[in-house]
Each structure stands twice: as structure tokens, then as C-alpha cells.
Amino acid sequence: MSTFDYIIVGAGSAGCVLANRLSKNPKHKVLLLETGGSDKSIFIQMPTALSIPMNTDKYAWQFHTEAEPFLNKRKMHCPRGKVLGGSSSINGMVYVRGHAKDFDEWEANGAQGWNYQSCLPYFKKAETWLNGEDAYRGGSGELGVNNGNDMVNPLYGAFIKAGEQAGYPITDDYNGEQQEGFGAMHMTVKGGYRSSTSRAYLDPIKNRNNLTVITGALVSKVLLEGKAATGVDYSYKGESVTAQANKEVILSAGPIGSPHILQLSGIGDTDTLEKAGVKVKHHLPGVGLNLQDHLEFYFQYKCKQPITLNGKLGVFSKGLIGAQWLLNKSGLGATNHFESCAFVRSKAGIEWPDIQYHFLPAAIRYDGKSAFDGHGFQVHVGHNKPKSRGSVLIQSADPKVAPKIQFNYLQHQDDIEGFRACVRLTREIISQPAFDAFRDGEIQPGEHIQSDEEIDEFVRQSVESAYHPSCSCKMGEDEMAVVDSETKVHGLTGLRVVDSSIYPTIPNGNLNAPTIMVAERAADLILGNTPLSSNHVSVHIPPNWQEQQR
To answer: How many Cβ atoms sit within 10 Å of the Cβ of residue 5?
Structure first.
């Protein structure tokens, strides 16, 4: 048995941030536990290899959902990071904070102090933006953010120009004042390397005497004495180990892991726990509920010109790309290839964007398993403010048995209509003159897919997770809330949850950036620091949003 001040469970997007901030004071003894191992693999560190780690058992939990009732009973892949850096070591490295109104929505849902103006200083604190600090962007944070290869491929610019021709605005910085519009996309890459939280936050401080990092540790439960968390039990090299916490236990195991560990510990809905054979310690009905995710599909087109990444998939081309990266950390190996993007509103009456685009100068599956035979390009599109809700529910008292995951994707009619808008708006954008020199026929969905019924069936068959599970331990004060606005578990002392599971609602964008922000702000709450503040900044909302879609 060993004793620490703070025990952090999960060395992912949030856990590495917390380990850095909480161990900064040498008086604090900090333990960071991670089930996975080292992130020092070329497949993790080289940005272009992004499809490999998320599909590798060594680096990711290969979760799958139950048969999704509104997706023709498909079981959806839900990989989560199992490595130092967590999902920041296996993700697509896309840096999107979300719209300012997403965080105002959090506060409206009971997360007091988590509005945009309160969160902005922590986004800035975390980041070093390539173009330097301003009112919206950070210039001296741990996380490196840039635009990859600066959109050298002309298809990136064609996508932005097509958006403008279709009547949408251009945005110079979707992470700044104006998210809505078309522009360059940002990625967490620094010096040609993936800027995961392990590399950015943990590597520089891993030798601190007051920080202990243990990999290969599977936490089985949080220990409770009455209503107080006192430590954790975990297995390590076949042995059962107990670690005690003088101050707090902090779960940062992610939207699947954190609710599962709470339930393994007897914290959750009484009926759910009893069915799984777990002794109830603290009835908290919202644990594992409110689960949300983003779906997306690929709109693919043939390309007239031989300029796409489909021409770079041979062994020789890949060897050259890898050699350039190994020698100079530059070239196609140093980008995730998502270098232009857009955020638009699906219809009039929507105040801020609910559709997101990632543009890719290739026609290939996200997991890299299948590519179009010829030159092509694609745009990933998804309706990003879903109203469907799911759950993460324990099935067994054995921590090695995965929980039951059910997202209920497309359960809500508004989500179905959002994807219909995705299909029709995308076709309109790609049909603009900017693509005339490149566009050569629709590969997917196929021009025969036109009616609502045809679009709905295509979406059910083809849509995939964007790998953004969240909201399963929601922050707030209602009966389904799991943590309060200080990230403390309701009804218990000494226990917090800090990761994307505590989002009340899912933001319009990728989740790594807001998860890092949540951890930065939570660190100040844990330490009792005065919250950071900044001057009030303006946020663009189109004046005609009630009457016009663009």
C-alpha cells in the first residue's frame, strides 16, 4: 500500500494535463495510473499514420456498441486510447474548440462557471498557436497547433472557394471570433510530431520527484469509507495493489472508462449495479447516462487530375514520405491531411453551426482499410448537435468485462433531418465552379440517392462514428447530473471526474481541445486557485440566423 495526495486514473487527454498541473507544487505527491503503455511509436508520433494506432489493440480499447436500433442493428466501433496520452495519442489531431455558444449551453444546463468567457482563458493557457497570441488564441501553452502543410494541395483551396461561391462566409480562424464559415483547419502537430498530451504535458515533467507514473495498471474500483473516497484498487503485473489518497481521487478514464469505474465501485443506479452483481455504495442514477457522440459519413468524388493522396498509397511513395519525415519531420508525413474545413448551419432558425466538414484530398476510409481505385477526394460531414442519447452500463463486477455501450444513434427525428441537410448542402457546395477542374462524378453516396427515404437508408448503412463519445457523467445540478460545477461527484467527498464524460452537451467540433480545456480549468478548481479571467471578447452570430440558413 502506498499513499499519495492525488490519484489520477487515466493518462489521457485530461489526465496528463492534471498530472502536470497538480505536481507543479513539489509538496503534492501525485500518482498517475494508465492501463496502456508507452506512446513512443512512430505510428503514434508521425501524424500521417493516424489510422494505425486507433485500430491497434496495443494502443486502443477496441470497444463496440450493442446493435444500434436506428442504424439497421449495426454494431459500431468505439476505440478509446489505451496508451500514454490516451485518445490524444490515437486521434486525428484535429483542433476544434467548439462554438462559443456550446459552452454557454453548458452553463444553461447547470454547469455554473463554464460559459465561454470563463473557458476561453483555459483554451488560451493550453495552446501555442502558430500565428501567435491574440484575444482568442494562446501563444505560450504546452499544446502545439498549426495547419500542417499550409494547404499546398489545390483541392483544399477549391473547397474553401466553393463554400464562398455557395454563399457561405470565409472565416480566418474558426477557433477565434467566428466559427461559422469555410477556412483552414488546425491540427495538434508541433515540429512535425503529434502534439498529444503525453508529449506536450507529461514528457517535460515526468521526472519530477513527486510524480509517479505507472503504466499497465487496471483500476478495479475507487475505495470508499462511508461517503468519502480514500483511494483505489488496481492490478499491476498480476498483483492487486491499493493506493491511498490523502486529498482526492480523480477519474480521467474517459467517457467509457470513468462511468464504468464508478459503477465498479458501487456508484451509480441501484438497479443497474445490482443486475451486474455489484454492491451499491452510493445511488447516483445518472452515471453512464446522457451518452452522446458525433456521426459522420464520407462524401466522395472522382478527381480529374492526378493530384490526390490516392497516388501516394504505394509502398515506394509511402517509403519516401516516411523517409522525409524521419529525416526532417516535414512533408506529407507531418500532417493529418485535414487542412481545410467548414462549419455551417443546417437550416434557418439555428443560431450557431451544427454541421462540420473535414476536407481530405483522397478517397479513402478513415481507418485506411479501403481506398478508391483511382484519384478522388472526399469531405467528411456530420450533424454535430445530436439530440439522441445513449448509455454506458456495467455488465459484470469483473473490471475486465467491457460495459454495455449503446448510443441510440439517430433516435431523434431532428438528427435524421440534420443528415438529410448534410447530403443536400454538400452536393450544392461541391457543384460550385471552384471544383469544375477537379470534380469527375460522385462515388458516394451516388447520384441516384435523392429522396428523403433514399438518403435516410444510405445514412443508416454508411454513417460511422466520428469517435467523439462524451457526456456520460454530466456536470450539473439536476437529478441526472453526476458531478457538480467543481467536477466533484455528487454526494461524495474526495472524488472528482475530469474528462469529456462531464460535458453536459456535446460541442460542435472535435473533442480533444475542449477536454484539455476542462482539465486545465479543473486543475485550478482542485488546487483552489483563483480562476483565470480575460477581457470579454465578441462572438459572431449571424444577424439573420432566424430567417436564413446562410
So the answer is: 17
d(CA 30, CA 35): 17
Annotated binding site for FAD: 83, 91-94, 219
| pLDDT value for 368 | 58
Q: Are residues 326 and 179 in the same domain?
A: yes
Owner of C-alpha cell 455557395: 166
Predicted confidence (pLDDT) per residue in 450-503, tens digit: 999 999 999 999 999 999 999 999 999 999 999 999 999 999 999 999 999 999
Beta strands in 226-294 (DSSP E): 228-236, 239-251, 267-268, 282-283, 289-291
Question: What CATH number does the domain containing 180 carry?
Answer: 3.30.410.40
Q: In angstroms, rounded to a whole number, what is the distance separating the alpha carbons of residues 376 and 358? A: 15
Cα–Cα distance for residue pair 378/363, rounded to 1 Å: 5
Tally of domains within the chain: 2
Backbone angles phi, psi at 434, to 5 degrees: -60, -25
Q: Give a three-class secondary structure readout of 440-455.
A: EEEEECCCCCCCHHHH
- State yes or no: pLDDT of 65 exceeds 70: yes
Answer yes or no: do 473 and 449 share one domain. Answer: no
Query: Of the residues 186, 282, 380, 468, which is catalytic?
Result: 468
Q: What range defines the domain where residue 134 resides?
A: 1-146+194-293+468-532
Q: How far apart (Å, rounded) are the C-alpha atoms in residues 403 and 493? A: 25
Is the per-residue pLDDT at 370 higher than 80? no
Query: Is 468 tagged catalytic?
Result: yes
Query: Residues annotated in the binding site, as ranges?
Result: 83, 91-94, 219
Cell of 9: 486514473
Average pLDDT score over residue span 495-515 = 98
Do 109 and 72 share a structural domain? Answer: yes
Amino acid at 533: S
Model's pTM, two decimal places?
Answer: 0.97
Q: Is position 402 within any domain?
A: no
Q: Are residues 307 and 449 in the same domain?
A: yes
Q: Could you tell me if 205 and 328 lie in one domain?
A: no
pLDDT value at position 366?
Answer: 61
* CA–CA distance, 313 with 374 (Å, rounded to integer): 11
**Interatomic CA distance for residues 527 and 354, integer angstroms:** 35
- 102 and 178 assigned to the same domain: no
Which residues, other chains included, contact 319 with Cβ-Cβ below 8 Å and sequence gap of 6+? none
**Do residues 349 and 305 share a domain?**
yes
d(CA 342, CA 67): 32
Give the residue-averaged pLDDT of 336-354. 97
Q: Which three cell numbers stand for residue 365?
A: 476510409
CA 373 – CA 45 distance, rounded (Å)? 28
Query: What whole-number percentage of the chain has pLDDT above 90?
Result: 93
Quick one: what percent of the chain has pLDDT higher than 70?
Answer: 99
